[in-house]
Write a structure and sequence with these properties.
It contains four helices and no strands. With 85 residues, it is an all-alpha fold.
Length: 85
């Protein structure tokens, strides 16, 4: 009898797309290149135009800070967490 892969999504192993993984790993060298170009060619002009604190940027707060706060809050309502605490 041949073993077949289960179609139940809970038993399948997690897979990550190779393209997604390469895109994530490409972010750090790209940002590093932007920093080097800014310092070498633009003499820090890009850095000077940015605010001192990322919280001053509205869209930064919307896309990074707010989801982090909401995800943390919802994790407190997990059944296992509520049972323990």
């Amino acid at each position: 009898m041949l073993a077949t892969a289960s179609t139940n999504p809970r038993t399948r192993p997690w897979t990550i797309s190779r393209r997604l993984l390469l895109a994530v790993y490409l972010v750090v060298p790209t940002v590093g290149l932007v920093v080097v170009v800014d310092l070498a060619l633009l003499r820090g002009g890009l850095r000077g135009s940015l605010p001192n604190s990322p919280e001053d940027l509205f869209w930064f707060t919307v896309f990074f800070v707010l989801p982090h706060i909401l995800a943390s809050q919802f994790s407190f309502y997990d059944r296992e967490y509520v049972k323990v605490y």
